[in-house]
Design a protein that fits this description.
The relative contact order is 0.03. This protein is an alpha+beta fold. 56% of the residues lie in helices and 19% in strands. The termini are far apart. The strands form 5 sheets. It has an 8-stranded mixed barrel, surrounded by 4 helices. A 6-stranded antiparallel beta sheet has the order 3-2-1-6-5-4, with helices on both faces. Bound molecules: ligand C2E and magnesium ion (2 copies). One magnesium ion binds next to loops. Its EC number is 3.1.4.52. GO terms for molecular function: cyclic-guanylate-specific phosphodiesterase activity. Keywords: c-di-GMP, Membrane, Transmembrane, Transmembrane helix.
Length: 957
Amino acid sequence: MVHHQKDYIQQHLNSAQITNTLRHSRYFLISILIICLYIFCVYLLHYQPTELYFNVWFVGTEIMVSLCWLINTLYFKPGQYHLRTAHRWLNTQCLLIGACIAIGIYTIYIYLPSVNAQFTAIQALTLSALLLIVTQAFGLTFLTQKPSYFCLVFLPCLIPFFFSQIFENNDNLFLGLSLNFAVLVILFCASSSYRIHKRTSRLYAENSLLVSDAKQQVAWTDELCQQLQQEVNKSKDIEMQLQLNNQLLEQKVRERTYDIHQMNHDLQNQNQNLELAHEIAGIRPWDWNIKDRVITLTNHMHEKVSRDSKDHHAQLHDIIHPDDVDYFKSNMKQHLRGQAERYEATYRIQQTKGVWSWVHDIGRVISRDPKTNKPLRMVGIRRDIQNERTSQERLKLAASVLEQAAEGIFILNEDLLYIDTNPFFEQLSGFEREQIIGKHLFDITANYKSQQRSTHSNIIKQVMKIGSFDGEINEKFLSGKEMALWLHINAITDDEGRVTHYIGIVSDLTERKHQEQRLSYLENYDTLTDLPNRFYYNYQLHQYLVTQKDSIKQMAVIRINIDRFRPLNEYLSHNGGDELLRQVAQRLRITNAEALFVAHLNGDDFAILYEISHIRPSVQEHCDRISKAFSQPFNVLGQDYVITLSMGIAFYPDHGRQLDYLNNCAEQALAEAKALGGNTIRFYSSENTALLEQGIFIERDLRKAIKNNELVVYYQPKIHITNQHIYGFEALVRWQHPEKGIIPPGMFIPLAEQTSLISEIGRLVIRETAKQIRQWNDEGFRDICVSVNIVAQQLRRGQLLDDLDQAIESTGISGKSLELEITESSLVENSDSVMNLLNEIKERHINISLDDFGTGYSSLSYLADFPIDILKIDRSFVSKIGDKKQEAIVSAMVAMGKAMGMTVVAEGIETVEQLEYLRELKCDIAQGFLFSKPLPIKEASEYLAQTKLNLSYSYQV
Ligand code: C2E
Ligand code: MG
Ligand code: MG
């Protein structure tokens, strides 16, 4: 170590000497540069011109010194050189400088005095000594790190002096001695300086060694401290780990303890569960210690009891059913002997006297003597299976019901998939059970049509929503079977109300449908003619009007009646009449192939529904075709008969959109056709419809009108044609509607005729007319005669006479001043009763006038039979006066009336020509707008007063 330190110090010393000298030599060189320049300048100032050698020396020295300085500075940068190279260079540099200085001293001291006389020896000595001393002084300061450097500068410098002492004759001894002494002193100083430098460097080296040692010590100490700290940390970590482990251990112990508690608790629970399960399942465990002859049982209170096994078996023997004792014993023995793996027996035991209950006993030997193989301990359970046996029996019964039921029964799961079906359902669907199971409810039926699909989805929705469905469906199974079914599906729920299954019952309705169809035929068809009856006709018409109104735009309702069927029927007797109706129906069927519907309503009434379309013949053409077909005779009972038909037609929607209204219109048209004498086709007149369109709801409003006295009577004058005196009036009713003004009778009388309202109106008119006659009588018009219009219904209802009597009595007028206008058609119905009524009317001296003569029934026989006084020629004839043929008819009518002794009245006279013509025919009385329109009371009275004054009529024209 010490040796190592010495080496280090030596090395450091050497390196410090060279490095310091390199650094200091730069200052040394600069000093030399300056002193040389100074000497050169001093000499130059005193002695011009200068000497060549002196100049050469100066320039050469300056260049040399500068080069050395540059090499020092540029080449030897700190830390970038080898010590050895630097040492050699310093030696060389010192030697070169020493040489340069020596040459300079020689030049100044020896050469210059020889060439320049003015330059004295003293001056030369002074200058050269200056150069030497300054050089040595700077050498001492900067180059004494190593003695070699100083010596290499110093020693060459002395050479010129020694040279001059030796070779020149120098008598200046003092100078010589001084010089030598100075050289010695300088050498001594150099040596001292070297030693001081050396010691300083050594101390410095030692010091730096110590510093580095100290640093090393400090580093080691730090390292040790760190290691110590790490150790401390490690021990802390270990301590913490230990604490953690300790805590974990404690936690584990706690958890374990808790688990054990929990397990204990679970075990207790399971034990309780087991006991509960045993209790619920009716299981009673037993444990038989064969060795100690003790058996532990669970009694019916679910308590454990131990008893002697011998006693127990004796007791068991007593309560086991005698038939099961042997079976029980043999099973037990087999197992105890090891012949059977376990003991199992199902037997009956007596609960109470006479009540046997099935039990299932099962057990196993769990311990045997290893040597003798004798059983030592056996355990087992006994279970009461009485309820199960009963349920099984019930299930068997239910299954056999399912098997034998004469209804299709199926069971679906909660997703409506088949899980079971009975044989009858297989028969109905045409599928085997295996083909159905697992399929969805309607997967076995056809679902091609959207209607079927929607029915199915509705059923499924309903079943899912309310849990049941009950209804009739037409189903086609994929097996090809198609039928009407009654389907009943019901959800089965568990105790919580959740749907677990669905039960479906399917009945085949095919047979019932057939029966219904048969019944429906009887209900809807007329058995005599095989045509639809009135009920079905109305139903069908309703269907067309309501459900098919979009497809049928226009339709004709044709009502047909056989003309004069009643007498023919009576003549043909019952069978013949039926046969005729059958043939009529057949012919109607044939001729109405294009019609929508042909029906036999009753008796001789038929109806046809005919769709109006441009691709079919018009209604008129169609009806003409029917009429033509009926021109051919019918052969009934070997005789040919020709019959004619009356037809009344109403149009949908022109005449109405409702069934009743259309029927009424068609009936009304038929009545008109009949009134015209039959063999006629009549279309319903739209007058009434127009009224309806005006928004007047006749019947209701008419009743209100009667109540509110909105009906007023107008009077149209009748004039004696011969003397032009007033004969009387015709009372004509008007409806003074609060909103619509005066409504003419043609608008409401035909409708009133369809209800009882006409009788009320008639009574009102009779009463009002009677009152008016009374008033006119009172005013002096005594012979006045006023006619009122009477319809068939009034004649039929039997109220007319009372009304007349009441009017006459209450007003006290004479029957002669009243006249009743009756239409021809009224007389046809119920001829006998009408005849009686008319006779009674006649007894009251009331005249009877036949109104609208010529428009109705063409038979004239009633003219003779009935007590008719006046014949009133219809205005349709009067209006055509001018036409020869028509005139002929009018004249025939007048002639006939006259011939039969009747008064002849012509109504609707509008022109003087008509009046004149009738006058020529000797017609008695004239009525018409020519004289006056029907007038309200006041104006009628005025008219009367005026004609009395004039005693003649005045034309209105
Ligand atoms: P009708 O009994 O034949 O009455 C005659 C009708 O002819 C009246 O029509 C009358 O105004 C009209 N008339 C009279 N002269 C002329 C004429 O020169 N030219 C034209 N174009 N018409 C003339 P009105 O009053 O509209 O009565 C129509 C029908 O209503 C009556 O026919 C009658 O059948 C019925 N009617 C009127 N009032 C009553 C009534 O109180 N009871 C009943 N049951 N029916 C009545
Ligand atoms: Mg009349
Ligand atoms: Mg008339």
